[in-house]
Amino acid sequence: MATVAELKADDDREPRPSLSHENLLINELIREYLEFNKYKYTASVLIAESGQPVVPLDRQFLIHELNAFEESKDNTIPLLYGILAHFLRGTKDGIQNAFLKGPSLQPSDPSLGRQPSRRKPMGM
């Protein structure tokens, strides 16, 4: 397995793509998710490697750029959760209706995401 120094040396040889507007928005959505989940080291590496501004982008700016809105006053949930919830629900009315009713990532089928129950063998 490669060490961190080896990975860094290999990484320095490869040119990075420019920080396009799309990359800026995607990186910010990922950073918000990483920080929410306390992946602080990973977030710091993302910022360092991508050239993302150290100061996070304003959330309202992100919402405006994505042509989205928040239904909830709880703006502590990362926007990426709202995007995912939208597609898991399978709505067809556009991404602008994806944001956020709170932690709405419960599967539509309640049995999904649960550990299988242990059945007793027959005859017991």
Automatic annotation (TrEMBL):
UniProt GO cellular component terms: centriolar satellite; centriole; ciliary basal body
BP-aspect Gene Ontology terms: cell projection organization; microtubule anchoring
First-listed, main subcellular location of the protein, grouped into a coarse class: cytoplasm
Pfam families linked: FOP_dimer (PF09398)
Cytoplasm recorded as keyword: yes
Location of this chain's protein in the cell: Cytoplasm, Cytoskeleton, Cilium basal body; Cytoplasm, Cytoskeleton, Microtubule organizing center, Centrosome, Centriolar satellite; Cytoplasm, Cytoskeleton, Microtubule organizing center, Centrosome, Centriole; Cytoplasmic granule
Gene3D superfamilies, per the entry: 1.20.960.40
Keywords linked to the UniProt accession: Cell projection, Cilium biogenesis/degradation, Cytoplasm, Cytoskeleton
Region (Disordered): 99-124
Family: Belongs to the CEP43 family.
Biological role: Involved in the biogenesis of cilia. Required for the recruitment of PLK1 to centrosomes and S phase progression.
Protein name: Centrosomal protein 20
